[in-house]
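Field reference: sequence -> structure
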Amino acid sequence: MTYSDPVLKDILALPKRIAAVGVSLNPIRPSYFVARYLTLKGFAVVPVNPAYAGKTLFDEKVVADLSEVEGDVDMVDIFRRSEAVPPIVDQALEVFPKLQTIWMQIGVEHAEAAAKAQARGVTVIQNRCPKIEYQRLFGELRMGGFATGIISSKL
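Structure field:
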């Protein structure tokens, strides 16, 4: 699926509170460093993973599932396999009446779940990473994918 840069930029400018479903406490896992990056950019990230329920990640208590999240979220970011997506989307639509976006990470897609969310007015992004898109769209992605802070004309 293709998404225009203005659409992605608008989506990433909107959320303030993100539920990260399937986030890991292991710092070498992609879900960990994506969630960490989003917190460093000012987003409130609610970690959701039954394996770590009750522990703390980025000063937030990890909850077992979306029904345990207190308050509303703007975006649900899914770090689970595609076949696990439908019940996550169903629960998100049930417990977050103001949900704006469901984001499925790289390699994660589910057409039926996406259509269900879109029918409820929720924007759905599939097979993309919000960290990569944020860096690319807000000028933080540099050569090799790293923001080195070094300015040079040498290659």
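Note: The chain has one domain: 5-145.
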